[in-house]
Amino acid sequence: MRRQLEVHLPLPPATVLDVGAGQGTQAIHLARAGYQVVAVEPDEQTRTACRSALDAEPDDVRAHVRVVDGALESLDSLPQIAGETFDAVLCHGVLMYLDDPNQPIRALGRRVAVGGLVSLVTRNDGALAWRYVLRGDLTAAHELLDEADRARWERRDARYTNELGVECRADNLERLGAYLGGIRCSLEHWYGVRIVTDGVPVDTAVPEDPTELAAVLDLEERLGRTEPYRRLGTLLHLVGRRGEGRGPQL
User: Fold this and answer.
1) pTM of the model
2) Residue 164: per-residue pLDDT
């Protein structure tokens, strides 16, 4: 996702709002590059881990990141960013935990400046079964295909259980594109994520050989931008660009 995002980001010192920042991996990477980042994270332990990671960085990197206690659902009421808009608004790995993405995406739209971008990463309802196909778990693959069929018939979002045992929701590419249109963001590009690497169990160690790791990342990135392979990504990465005019209102 990092390589995909960098294609679209404005040059530093542009401002970035990272909603659901987690342990700050993305925020710190952007701060090292010179971006001014606000990292919003609701979980106290995770925020503590983010601040600990920041403490290990040089002074100039730490000065580029503000860590804020908050969530996507409460974005409009956060006093630390009241009245601010940003050159880029990131929301990666959050929407699948919410019952309905429409209003949260509208909240993101109220934070992006004209000409800025919104970057969304969420679960792809068109490839729910692919992880289990890769892993050879045909029973689970059939169950998720059945769930996707039921969801389409019942006109609802498909549900699945993630690696942590939490029930989540998958998103539809076309519907997300329409939601971006509702915040005056045109869909600049979309990518697939985790096309081949989701066949590897989550506890598998990252390759120690940098050449091997680079080869895997190169293949993932290439497949993620190439038809028809990108449609097999278990995650969707959408990049929208904010146009002129009035944004979404409360």
Assistant:
1) 0.95
2) 86
